[in-house]
Amino acid sequence: MEKIWYLPRSALRPSWTSARRWKHRLASSAGRHLMVFVSLGLALSFGVFQPYYEETLGMVPSAVSWIGTMQIFLLLGVGILSGRATDAGLVHETVFVGTFLAVIGLFTASLSTQFYQLFLSQGICIGLGMGMLYIPGVSVPASYFESKKAIVLAIANSGTGTGGLVYPVMVDKYGHVFTGFNIIDSINLLLASNGLGILGRLSTAFIASRWCGPLNTSITSVILAAIILYCWISVGDSRSGLYVFAAIYGFLSNGIQSLIVVSLAALTDDHSMLGTRMGMAFSVVAFASLTGGPVGGALIQTDGGSYLGEQIWGGTVMLLGAVAWTAARVWRTGFVLQTKI
């Protein structure tokens, strides 16, 4: 019998030059930036839509907040499905379905005048579309880089910041007054937080890539964010103090968000399972996003409108997050201080 020779799968792939490989990686990162821009960037700008829905459509604040929380919940919760689909090689199909749902949701939300219509369009439909887009956009670029992974993903994830800058400006023509701060102030606070957030993502990624590693940088950033949340108590009714708080906290919180993906990648040995692992992790975060807002609102209502309980709760939960990250580091490296991870 004639002997048949089989070539390895890698031999069947096109031979790419280094320049072409980098162009492909950068194009993937640019696509990731745009995917985050239209998904998480829009979701984190919901604070601008809420007062508009309350004033123009006469909706109850607690009801409107469910639209935003459901959107975030689905964005992160669907990740366990979209992540598994990504690992199975269905990236293009997953992105197509997510894009279709997001576009349909945006168009139908623009025609909505009732709560249930906005909940179905902006909360459910857009949330599902964002969830289908987010994890593929995270896991695919993460698999292309090793040494510069933190910086590249930070540039891609800064789509959250640019989205948070663009969407609030798009609604700045509504200037209705709410409890001493009008919507223009709300927009400016979001711009300060998201604008400094872009710098926070890039700087923490540089520190992680150059010196400390993503997990070590995440732990430090989370501890600093908890301290800032406790310092929020001293701001009181100061308008300038609130701007300073929004800028510093936006810098730190966005830096933390950009390092989550890289930290998960650092804890994952088999990168073929990276999408699934990220989907599982973000699905857990989804429940925190769903309950965080209502718990904070309940604390404020219980304290008669005071934010003290919410501020203490936020700082304490952030510290617990630092403890969890520290436990993950110890599990990975043991009790070794000077280790880059």
Q: Features of this protein?
A:
single chain; 77% helix; 341 residues; two-stranded antiparallel sheet; mainly alpha
Layout: helices, strands, pairs:
Blueprint: H1 18-38, H2 40-43, H3 46-56, H4 61-77, H5 79-87, H6 91-110, H7 115-142, H8 149-157, H9 159-170, E1 177-178, E2 181-182, H10 183-212, H11 214-231, H12 239-266, H13 274-302, H14 308-333
Antiparallel strand pairs: 1-2
Helix pairs in contact: 1-7, 1-8, 1-9, 3-4, 3-10, 4-7, 4-13, 5-7, 5-13, 6-7, 7-13, 8-10, 8-12, 9-10, 10-11, 10-12, 11-12, 11-14, 13-14
Description:
With 341 residues, the protein is mostly helical. Helices cover 77% and strands 1% of the residues. It is built from 14 helices and 2 strands. It has helices spanning 18-38, 40-43, 46-56, 61-77, 79-87, 91-110, 115-142, 149-157, 159-170, 183-212, 214-231, 239-266, 274-302, 308-333, and strands spanning 177-178, 181-182. The chain has a two-stranded antiparallel ribbon. Strand 1 and strand 2 (181-182) form a beta hairpin. Helix 10 runs antiparallel to helix 11 and helix 11 (214-231) packs antiparallel against helix 12 (239-266). The longest helix is centred in the middle third of the chain and has 30 residues, at 183-212. The termini are far apart. Residues 1-15 and 174-179 have low confidence and may be disordered.
